[in-house]
User: What shape does this take?
Amino acid sequence: MTNFDIIGKLSDDDPIAEILERALEDETLECKEGVELLESSNLNLIGAAADCLRKKSAGELVTFVVDRNINYTNVCSSKCKFCAFYREPGAADAYVLSIDEIISKVDEAVKLGATQILLQGGLNSEISIEYYEDMLKQVKKRYSVQMHAFSPPEIIHISKICGSGIRETISRLHEAGLDSIPGGGAEILDDRVRDFVSPNKIGWKKWREVMLEAHSIGIPTTATMVFGHVETLSQRIKHIIRIREMQGKYNGFTAFIPWSFQSENTQLSGNSTGIDYLKMVAVSRILLNGYIRNIQSSWVTQGISLAQVSLNYGANDLGGTMIEENVVRAAGVPFHSKNIDEFVHMARKMGRPVAKRDTLYNIL
Assistant: This one.
């Protein structure tokens, strides 16, 4: 059965069938078509098209990485309304991990098979760039792990602390041991949204500037989106298209990771469902077709069952086993680290091959 047979079988003359047929012919869709897809109630049709594109661009292989997410400080000046993790300076439970504590966490992760350390923290003005450099150097001296660290807001914050430009700051961190940059702090790449949910954080153009500077000097990054709070459907699609436009410059994004907002213990309300999540994954695949190969599911926020379903809606990657995670857990989401066997069982139950990968999607 061809892609178009599948669309014809499921479309029942649905008006979005024509949009999806153009997508399957590798036509680049724009904002209007993206919004129409999100507004449609025909999840099966959208999912079928996304699954076709996933097979074409990423094949049948399901991948994952063994990693640990270390949050080196919870002190943050940004005070985003959607964040339950940050603390004010001087709070009873505020902390900054010592370099020895970070080394200990990395050591534990490596012994459990981790190849990636995801390192992120709050915007803490008491930390100098020398702390970051020394920490990176000490980790890389001891362990052969990918340091996937410091989201764009952190990079901008560090650059201000040390009085250097963005490119110089990234280069200094890279020389110390920074290998790649996570896509955190993107939320929704629209300043009307950002001015409401995170008025003290960088605007979307600064986020773009960090990513493009990193890409221009050969440092790969991921791209994320947090949806389901105050944004409109149009702003979600605009976010994806802005990621796509950035990717057209240097091809530096290795993956796109959409995940739904978790609202407990925050100042905002969440408004998305599992159906919304699957639709968002599928539309991400459709709009990013030909630009970003890997669409990552989010078992941390959605649970393992829905993450499994998303593999039939455009996702091809399960992300990390996450030996440790603190930010989403602070927003009230039950968290239990996954082991390799769980991911392998999930994929094989679907009849799909599965493989462990590194941060850059090299199969291990």
Summary: The longest strand covers residues 253-260. Residues 233-250 form the longest helix (18 residues).
